[in-house]
Amino acid sequence: MGIARSVLDIAIAAAEREGAQRITKVNMVAGELRGIVPLQFTFCFSLMAENTIASGAQLNLEITPVRGICRRCEESFIVEDYRYICPKCQSGDIEIVGGTELRLRDIEVE
Q1: Which domain CATH number covers 19?
Q2: How many helices and strands, by DSSP H and E, does the chain display?
Q3: CA distance 11 to 21
Q4: For residue 10, what are the domain limits?
């Protein structure tokens, strides 16, 4: 709920800076490791947006997968089922390079 509140606050502040009367769409990206449940997040966002310029705004949430790079063979791969092992050489020495992001991509306003 805290993340939804922060996203809403950022979107409203940006829209108001530009003189917008209404936010119609909010597009954001969240990494899988953020643990965001899309249905719950959308519900919280909609609930908190009531009686604001974002009331009724559509929320588009793109969940990005966890990505890793093997430090041994330099293979880049998507981590599936939280299995942090290189699919090429089976090493467990990997670096996480994606799946932790959280950003507001853009908003659409009237």
Answers
A1: 3.30.2320.50
A2: 2, 6
A3: 12
A4: 2-65+98-109
